[in-house]
Amino acid sequence: MYDDYQAHNEMDETTLHAWQFYLAVAQLALSHLASWPAGSIAITDDQEHAYWVWQGATENHLAWAPVAEGMVCFDSAILVAELLGLSAEEIDYRRDSLSRLLQSDSPITLQWPKAQLQRAIRSPGEY
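User: That's the sequence. What structure does it adopt?
Assistant: Structure tokens below.
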């Protein structure tokens, strides 16, 4: 979706390394969540972030939305790969939170209608 975006042109070296590390963990999370039943949402242990698999036209992507007062804020949902403009500290915080989710024996999960999860993310061309 951001084919022309060149992260290395916009980020300092610390932020770029944090971003690359977060994307690597996000890829692991995508693989892990893809094995769960359709419509599964994983909530991080700090209960601030929700992640799920969003099916694009040709491949799956990891979607993210904030959690506020126990509610997933679908109106703020976005693909992880599109989370631009975060500081290195925020990226590290999200990566650590996602890493703990992957290591958890009993992660917090929700079941949601898959179609609604798909609609939470705008498709390319809707921007």
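The chain has a mean pLDDT of 90.
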